[in-house]
Write a structure and sequence with these properties.
This protein is of the alpha+beta class. The chain has 2 helices and 5 strands. The chain is about 35% helix and about 25% strand. The structure holds zinc ion (ZN).
Length: about 80
C-alpha cells in the first residue's frame, strides 16, 4: 500500500515535536511553534492512514514529554513524600 501520510519531527531544536501531514504536501507548519518544516529535508515516517499517523504522533510526543521532564517536577515529587 502507498503511504498517504508522513509523521515528521519539527526541525526547530527547541521544539522538536512530532506532527503529521499528508504525503503530497511539500511543507508542513509545526502546530506547536509554527515553524515551516520542509518535508524533503527532514526524516519522516511513512504511514498509510490518518489514525495510524495520529497514534504515532501521540506516542512520540508522550515520550518526548517524559524525556524532557522539567527540573521542578522532580523536586515537587520529592516534597510530596512525607
Ligand atoms: Zn515546532
Amino acid at each position: 500500500m502507498k503511504a498517504e501520510y508522513y509523521v515528521v519531527r519539527c526541525s526547530n531544536l527547541s521544539c522538536g515535536k512530532f506532527s503529521y501531514c499528508k504525503a503530497i504536501q511539500k511543507t508542513k507548519m509545526c502546530p506547536y511553534c509554527e515553524r515551516r518544516i520542509n518535508l524533503s529535508k527532514v526524516e519522516k515516517i511513512a504511514v498509510e492512514t490518518n489514525s495510524q499517523a495520529r497514534k504515532l504522533v501521540q506516542e512520540f510526543n508522550k515520550k518526548l514529554g517524559e524525556l524532557r521532564e522539567p527540573s521542578w517536577y522532580k523536586e515537587n515529587k520529592g516534597k510530596q513524600t512525607q
